[in-house]
Structure formats: structure tokens, C-alpha cells
Design a protein that fits this description.
Elements: E1 17-19, E2 24-26, E3 29-30, H1 31-34, H2 40-49, H3 55-68, H4 75-87, H5 90-99, H6 108-125, H7 129-141, H8 147-153, H9 172-182, H10 188-204, H11 212-222, H12 227-252, H13 300-304
Antiparallel strand pairs: 1-2, 2-3
Helix pairs in contact: 2-3, 3-9, 3-12, 4-5, 4-12, 5-12, 6-7, 6-10, 6-11, 6-12, 7-10, 9-11, 10-11, 11-12
Bound molecules: coenzyme A.
Residues 104, 106-107, 158-165, 204, 208, 211, 213 line the site of coenzyme A.
């Protein structure tokens, strides 16, 4: 016995919300007052962090949700489609898609933790961002890591939130970094991932680039989110996509998919995802009045595709 007054099992004390028969209150606000007056991005910040965000933070959260909402055939959508082809209804398929998100697909948790650890180390050692980035790149690349490095960063041989097996240079990252800077939310964690891209050249013999999860996690950490929230944030955004793929799977495909007569393919093969196999609306632009945040930094592959080949 601790001497403290015990609460009944399942009697939670929560700082998030409370409700009566007539009222639901979220972080102090009546849910009906929030409804119609705040965006989903603002609500996410309120529920998770306890306060409504500054306008620029809300814009950035919204941009990140949009950026991560859809990515064609990826491990999560393909897993969800496979579950849908067997289960035939939405919930197990949605859960299956989300369950494929983790250390390899998305990896925003490990990435966020790494940026937080790196900046803490930088502050302890009095290093610059470049020195810290060099230390991390060198340590990850070296086959024989010293104990000091392993104690701080572990034995990983790849940078979390880095490289993309399909795009190679993930075209979404520069857009995120650009907006983080423009919206004034970029702090040391965003600056660190930019420095780390530069540091890779020395140890890989070529630049290896951050992927969308590296860019999202560093931006979220700069806005006060923790590693669990960073990964969950990506799962929430990607659920939008998973639902669409599940619904399309059920509407357009037969259950089971394969039979002895079917040719088996590699479902993540980028060659199978090109426009030839897409029958939605043709490529189009947003209407002019919607286009408020112009793209000033060109995505990587528009500038020097030759480097990838
Ligand atoms: C996703 C992942 C498993 C793909 O790895 P892969 O299939 O080996 O990638 P590729 O074969 O295209 O890349 C091979 C080269 O890129 C390097 N590379 C790949 N991912 C790397 C990373 N995260 N950090 C550093 N270098 C990386 C490999 O070391 C290899 O280079 P080398 O031959 O000089 O050693 C890997 O990039 C990874 O684990 N990334 C971290 C997790 C992550 O961010 N996941 C989200 C992906 S969207």
C-alpha cells in the first residue's frame, strides 16, 4: 500500500477532456464551439498538446497532413488491400494498413528520436550543427562504431528517415523544408537534417537524402511534438489513403486476388504505378484562388535528375 487514496480500476484522471449528459469539453473548450470554428489541424494540436496552435503552426500541421495523405502503392496501402481482399470489410483492412507502419515503412519515431538526441548532444558538447551532423554520419557509416557513439545512437547502419527506395531523392522533402522555413517553424531539428544531408557525401561517397519521414519528423519536433506523436501523426495522415485503397479494392477487385492462373508481380514495383495503370482524373492544377503557397524550391528530380541515373 502506498498510503495514497486508490482510485477504482478504469477510473482515469485525464487532462484531455470531460463530458456530462449535456456537454463535451476538450481541453476546456466546448466541442460545439470548436466545431465549425477550428480546422482539423488546429484540433489535432489542441487535443495532443493542450492548446490551440499559432496560425503558422496550424498551417504547417495542415501542410504535413496533406503531404502524407497519399502515396500510391506503398507497404501500408498494399497491406490494407491484401487484408481487404480477404476480410472484405473496412476495419481489419484499415488496421492492417496502419500496422505496417513502423521502423522501416515511415520510421518517423526513430527519426524524431535521433534528431532530438543529436541536438541534445550538440548542446552538451558545444558543437555546431555541422560538427554534430558529421559525427552522426560518420558513426552510422562506420562498421566499427565506438562505445560512446553506440551509447547515444545505437548500432544502426542506416540513418532513420533517410533515403527512399522508389524515389531515391524524395521529392516531398524539399517542399516540407521550404514551408517550414517560410512559416517560421524551422528550428534546430530542421536545420540539423539539412546539415546531415550535406554530411552524408563524405561518408557514402555521394549524397544520401532525407525522405518525407525525415522532413516531417524534424518539422514536428521543432513544433513541440514527441517521437510517438510523430509516428502517429503519419499514421493518421496515411489513414486517408488506406481507406480509399480499401474501398477501391472492394469495389473493383475480386477477393483473394491470385489463383494458380494468375501471374505474380512485385506489388511495390514503381514500374507498375506509372500513369498507364491509373484511370482517375488526368493531371491538373489547383484553381488559381487556391494556390496561395507557390513552390519556389524545385523538387530535387526536376533540377538534376541526371545525378540519380
Ligand atoms: C527504406 C530502406 C529499407 C530502403 O533500403 P534499401 O532497399 O537498401 O535501399 P537501396 O537499395 O535503394 O539503397 C542502397 C544504398 O543506399 C544506402 N541507404 C539506403 N537507405 C539509407 C539510409 N537510411 N541511410 C543511409 N544510407 C542509406 C545504402 O546504404 C546503400 O548504399 P551503399 O550501397 O553505398 O551501402 C532504407 O532506406 C531504410 O532503412 N531507411 C530508413 C528507414 C526509413 O526512413 N524508412 C522510410 C522509408 S519511406
Amino acid at each position: 500500500m502506498t498510503g495514497k487514496k486508490e482510485r477504482e480500476p478504469f477510473h482515469w484522471r485525464s487532462a484531455i477532456s470531460h463530458k456530462t449528459r449535456d456537454k463535451i469539453v476538450v481541453r476546456g473548450y466546448d466541442v460545439n464551439e470548436l466545431t465549425g470554428n477550428v480546422s482539423f489541424a488546429e484540433m489535432l494540436h489542441l487535443v495532443w498538446k493542450g492548446e490551440l496552435p499559432e496560425k503558422n503552426v496550424a498551417k504547417m500541421i495542415d501542410a504535413l497532413l496533406v503531404c502524407f495523405a497519399e502515396h500510391a502503392m506503398s507497404p501500408s496501402t498494399v497491406s490494407a488491400r491484401m487484408v481487404m481482399s480477404g476480410a472484405g470489410y473496412i476495419m481489419p483492412a484499415l488496421a492492417g494498413g496502419i500496422l505496417s507502419i513502423g521502423y522501416i515503412h515511415v520510421d518517423a519515431h526513430e527519426a524524431a528520436q535521433t534528431w532530438i538526441t543529436a541536438i541534445k548532444l550538440m548542446e552538451e558538447k558545444g558543437w555546431t550543427l555541422d560538427q554534430t551532423a558529421d559525427y552522426l554520419a560518420k558513426g552510422i557509416r562506420s562498421e566499427e562504431k565506438d562505445d560512446a557513439f553506440i551509447r547515444v545512437f545505437g548500432k544502426r547502419t542506416v540513418i532513420p528517415g533517410w533515403h527512399h527506395p522508389q524515389h531515391i531523392r524524395d521529392l516531398r522533402s524539399p517542399r516540407i523544408i521550404e514551408l517550414a522555413e517560410r512559416f517560421g517553424v524551422a528550428g534546430n531539428h530542421v536545420k540539423f537534417v539539412v546539415a546531415l544531408e550535406n554530411a552524408t557525401e563524405k561518408y557514402w561517397g555521394r549524397k544520401v537524402y532525407m525522405n518525407v519521414a525525415g522532413a516531417i519528423s524534424s518539422t514536428l519536433v521543432d513544433m513541440g511534438f514527441n517521437p510517438d506523436e510523430c509516428l502517429a501523426f503519419c499514421a493518421i495522415a496515411r489513414s486517408v489513403s488506406i481507406v480509399a485503397h480499401c474501398v477501391e479494392e472492394k469495389a473493383r477487385e475480386k477477393g483473394w486476388r491470385a489463383s494458380t492462373k494468375s501471374k505474380i508481380i512485385q506489388p511495390l514495383d514503381l514500374a507498375l504505378q506509372k500513369p498507364d495503370y491509373y484511370d482517375g482524373p488526368p493531371d491538373r492544377h489547383l484553381p488559381k484562388e487556391k494556390f496561395v503557397e507557390p513552390l519556389t524550391r524545385a523538387p530535387y528530380h526536376y533540377t538534376d535528375q541526371s545525378e540519380d541515373e
